[in-house]
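User: I want to check something. If I give you two sequences, will you return the structure for each one separately, not as a complex?

Assistant: Yes, each is folded on its own. Here is the first sequence with its structure:
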Amino acid sequence: MPSITSFDQLEALAFRRQQIAFGILTLFVIAVLLVIHTLFASLLGEPSAAVILLLGGAFSLKMLEVIWLQGKREGIDKKIARIETFTSVVALFLLAFLLAYFTNRDDPPYFVLLAIPILQCAYHLRLVPTILTIVAAVGMMFAWAYHFFSSHPPPRPTEYLEIAMIAAIYTLMGLLVWYLVNQLRSNEQRLYSNMRELESTRERLIAEEKLSAVGRFASSIAHEIRNPVAMITSALGTAKSLSAEGPEREEMFGIAGREARRLEKLTKDFLTYARPVRPDVSEVSLADILEHIVELTRMHAAGRNIAVTFEMVGSTHAVIDQSQIEAALLNLCLNAVDATPEGGRIEVRSRNHDGRVSLDVQNSGRRIEPDNLKQVFEPFFTTKPGGTGLGLAIARGIALAHGGDLYISKNEDGNVVFTLQIINGSGHPGN
């Protein structure tokens, strides 16, 4: 799980998204106002060249601003955010005033643009700047009405009443949005704090679980090593106490040798499990791999009348680490031989499609007991006498290193299937 981004980074990303939304809203309002002015030219008058030039220039600049914001993938920091908000608010006030000036009406429709800077301030600034923006917007509308009726008397009280109603709407809208946004921001801060606390707790739990796993692993290693060492010590001690020659002395040396080889195998398997090698991939023939593994399996099953076959589905070539996959597949096949009764069958299947390679090893033995299913891939777990319990753990590590996994896809009496699934081309290419 990736670490939680800092709250400042989250705010920077949120500001970028919000400003893009405000930019698109502004573009939409400008386009709608121009369309309305054109469609209702009989009431509002034909839009002058100055009005069209202002709207076109504002549309172009706002489009460039949206494109710039789209490019700021990492977000906008607080300093730039304040400058951007201030610039956008001032520009919209200036645009609304100039459009009102060039249309020269008592109720210019372009004052609707003033709602956008009020919303921007409510989203991004504190209460005082938001109130000042509302006052500035309302003041501009009243000032314009006063200016217009000073040159076009007589004044109409209804016009001032309309402006007062719009002022009330703008005030209610601005303060309500500011309150809701700040409530949301406060909740986000609490949520972020809780998430940080949860992440910290999770990291501590993971560290404790790792320590616990290391303890269990060390205990398992000590247990597995202790037995052969004890047998070697006992056998050598017994041999020392016996006569210089004799069958019992030779038997003790034989026991010591077998346990030493077992200890060597255990150490080798442990090192393979503890220090997995990154896959060194190249394009290889799956058919050649399966033929080789099946032949080795038949040799291992010789004398038990076990049929060993293989089947290919899909492409016969894959980009994998051949030696690692052969080791994992051979381990599965040898386990299948041990689990298959005399006269049974083992089938190895390869399915290569959609960038995934699935290697199935099916045997006709008894199903794995439910109590053992959860432990079958754990290191040092084995039900075979003399087994190290690392074979399946190593095979699963190879599968994971190839971007896949090893799992039991079927578990029925007479039909037990281990599936080694890997991503075609995972790892790094060989020289």
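And separately, the second sequence with its own structure:
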Amino acid sequence: MSKIVGIGANVFDTLYNIPTYPTEDTKMRATASKTAGGGPVATGLVAAQKLGEETAYIGVLSDDNGGKFLKEDFEKYGVETNLIEIKSGYRSFASVLWLCADSATRTCVFDKGDLPPLVLNDAQKQAICDAELLMVDGNEMDAAVEAAKIAKANGTKVLYDCGGLYEGVERLLAYTDIMIPSEEFSLGHTGCATAEEAAKKLYEMYSPEVVVITQGKRGGIIFDGKEVVSYPIYPAKVVDSNGSGDVFHGAFAAGVVKGYDYLKCCHFSSAVSGLKCTGVGARESVPSFDTTEKYLKENGYDL
């Protein structure tokens, strides 16, 4: 039985390392390239698995090269794949990313493919009931909402990685226990001028247990209905920032399952995300629990 299950984007990424962004209508030689698995929930599950928690992905994949890669990539990291439906004749969700050295940023162009939407079967529903935490990211919206309802009825916490302002997000926010939006999402959805105001507004609108707003290089804030508290980023030499937010959410899920309070989860997740940025590849660069614990101690924080 997996303690953490997830429904959301699972993306076949092709990454190119480039020295600087090219001028339009020119050619540039990449310094390196590779294929990798991506997507908020999918990468979050890998992060949680690498941090010592049992995870499973619930979703639909194609039998094309991208889908085969994504399933094998899960298996490589130990994420359970028996809740995945394989469909023939469809195009996988895929993206191309430029990882720019001089600005330490990334640019992404994606194709969502044409896979049919996920429809939950009995085994998938039971896995949600049996789990301690369900991760969602706004993709597969109808299935995610149904899954969140099942989770709420069976004592499974719902963690929502709120990254995109998708149509109908309020349907999913209404069933969220752990709400982790980006600052852009929180301001856009609430119309507030500051992250602090947005955190309070989201808490008032949807009554989650906690709102955690991520603010990139500034760390972030957490609001539990009582006070707004800041959490830091931890020092890291950034090589590849792609997927750092996905890893943050997966680490947060792992922290919840480990029994950490929500502020401790913020520190833990910030450290895991920072360490991930020191290597290339959103999944393969996720550190172990022991490495993270040591890194936090070196930076003055004890788990």
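Because they were folded independently, the notes below concern the second chain alone. The chain has a mean pLDDT of 95. Residues 244-258 form the longest helix (15 residues).
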